[in-house]
Design a protein that fits this description.
heterodimer; A: mainly alpha; 2 strands; 62% helix; B: alpha+beta; six-stranded antiparallel β-sheet; 4 helices; 39% strand
């Protein structure tokens, strides 16, 4: 299965977490890290965060807003929302199949 | 890896990114590093980032010097290699080596204790803002350990068992954070209160099951036994007039009695409402305590729950007997303590103090000691400037009185300390003062002598 996340390699997971974090509104770097930790338990480190941010920005899935001091908030773009929705749909499909198959296995 | 060393290494590595990358992300990254507790993982992630950005065609024009390239490879190999094998061990060591994180903008605007005074949560920023909260292990107060930090809102209460932090989310909605694992706080719920009026206080019942959140016109009682699904039990109608520097500045105007049957809340000029919350779904006002015509800023129950102490904006200390909650009696009034609570420069009245007659000339904290025999009141007077953030120093004057079982006060003592804080908080021992810095996330714990 090929998708738009192909080519992001090991950055696929951070990218998904980052888009999810920005889905409810713009956030700056540290707020993104703490939000991701809060909703997923993943402690994303600054190097990983900015690697993913740079790639997402280059693809036009997030865009920077004006700086507030040294902080620069980012927001998700329409294209970013679209790709996030696609990913969520795929994940839901996987979860459905996994649930079905594990239920079958237990019932066997 | 020692956090200080990890922080320094991280900053060095941030400077090794390609120039074009640094121009674009450098300042933001440094801002994040200022707030982030650096560890070996941070160093490893930045070393990997240095290498991958230099390999990236978009930044390739700006080549890494051979010396730095070797350095980044060495750091990656030295840090990222062993980390895979001994990550758990390193994190454990880093946790033990954690030190208070003293950077941070804004200033501490809320402090709460729990767990037999072993856990403390503090917040940087103003009420209703996107505050950074910090959880501290203060089992050994001389060596506080930072457990975690999260953007939760101003914390106004910590459940007695230390597993839940109640905060004020943006828009003044109460939020619950699950901190059962204090290293991984997770937001459990945001409760909807319908409008954006200012919340000025939250309190957990002693069993931790009920959360009371006080607004200017209502008090909400939630069943928070399930933090993910809080259930609204009752809304109590109140009226708390807002004045400048008024109740919104004090989260200490609401308290449950130690047996959890009574809730007391500041509800107007000189008034404290007493609610029977034995059955929270049918909570009802049973009495109104009346003191001098002056806002009561801070209240506290005695350990037996038979007394309620309060301190007003202009320094009247009041004790009410609640032996029969429906027939309360004022048992002690001490006036004029502000005459002994001077500004840091020794002046009694300051020309730059708030001119508004309704405003509080000081911040207060009040608490009984666990044996119920001593009442402590902390009076915090800011330096000349009325905006605490710009104040270099403030003076905390700590008064204590002996308390009889009937609520009479005698034998005053005074201790003074020039500290730097906005709003003092008294720990559950009724003696230790927590002073939050006005311009960093530092919290100073000190004991009056």
């Amino acid at each position: 299965m090929h998708g738009k996340f192909d080519g992001l390699g090991r950055f696929a997971d951070p990218s998904l977490l980052l888009l999810t974090s920005l889905a409810d509104g713009p956030k700056h770097g540290y707020a993104i890290m703490t939000d991701i930790a809060a909703f997923s338990g993943v402690q994303m480190e600054p190097g990983t965060l900015y690697g993913a941010l740079a790639r997402l920005e280059r693809r036009g899935w997030v865009r920077p807003l004006g700086t507030a001091g040294r902080r620069r908030p980012y927001e998700i773009t329409a294209a970013g929302q679209e790709i996030l929705a696609e990913q969520v749909t795929t994940m839901q499909r996987i979860v459905r199949v996994a649930r079905l198959r594990t239920a079958t296995a237990w019932g066997a | 890896m020692e956090p200080g060393l990890a922080g320094r290494l991280s900053r060095v590595l941030a400077g090794w990114h390609p120039r074009r990358w640094r121009d674009r992300y450098g300042e933001e990254l440094l801002d994040v590093l200022d707030q982030h507790q650096a560890s070996a993982r941070t160093v490893a992630s930045l070393a990997a980032s240095v290498l991958s950005t230099h390999a990236d065609p978009a930044y390739r024009a700006d080549r890494l010097s051979p010396a730095r390239l070797r350095g980044a490879v060495l750091v990656s190999a030295a840090v990222a290699g062993p980390i895979v094998l001994v990550l758990g061990l390193l994190l454990g060591m880093a946790a033990r080596l954690d030190r208070p994180h003293l950077s941070g903008a804004g200033g501490v605007n809320g402090v709460a204790f729990a767990h037999g005074q072993r856990l403390l949560v503090s917040a940087v920023g103003g009420p209703g803002e996107d505050n950074m909260d910090t959880l501290w292990d203060i089992t050994d107060p001389a060596r506080p350990r930072q457990l975690s930090a999260f953007w939760g809102g101003n914390p106004t209460a910590l459940s007695p068992d230390g597993r839940v932090v109640a905060t004020v989310a943006p828009g003044f909605q109460p939020a619950l954070w699950n901190v059962a694992n204090p290293r991984r706080p997770a937001r459990a719920a945001v409760m909807q209160t319908g409008d954006g009026t200012a919340m000025w206080g939250e309190a957990f019942s002693p069993g931790g099951r009920i959360l009371a959140a006080a607004y200017t016109d209502r008090i909400f009682l939630w069943d928070v036994a399930s933090t993910a699904r809080p259930r609204l039990l009752r809304t109590l109608a109140v009226s708390v007039p807002q004045v400048d520097n008024g109740p919104s500045a004090s989260p200490y105007g609401i308290a449950f009695s130690p047996d959890g049957r009574i809730l007391a809340s500041v509800t107007g000029t000189g008034h404290v409402s007493v609610w029977n919350v034995t059955d929270p779904a049918r909570a009802a006002r049973v009495a109104t305590l009346t003191g001098p015509r002056d806002f009561i800023q801070s209240i506290a129950f005695s350990p037996r729950g038979n007394l309620l102490a309060g301190v007003t904006y202009h320094g009247h200390v009041l004790v009410f007997s609640l032996a029969g909650p429906a027939r309360p009696a004022l048992t002690a009034t001490i006036s004029g303590i502000l005459a002994d609570a001077r500004y840091p420069d020794g002046r009694l009245h300051h020309p730059d103090a708030p001119p508004c007659p309704l405003c509080s000339p000081a911040s207060y904290a009040v608490a009984f000691t666990p044996d119920g025999r001593t009442l402590t009141v902390v009076v915090d007077r800011q330096e000349a400037d009325v905006i605490p953030t710009y104040s270099n120093v403030s003076r905390d004057t700590v008064f204590t009185w002996n308390v009889t079982s009937s609520g009479a006060l005698s034998g005053r003592t005074i201790a003074v300390s020039d500290v730097k804080d906005i709003q003092p908080t008294l720990a559950p021992d009724g003696r230790t003062v927590a002073s939050g810095s006005p311009n960093s996330n530092a919290v100073y714990l000190w004991m009056p002598r």
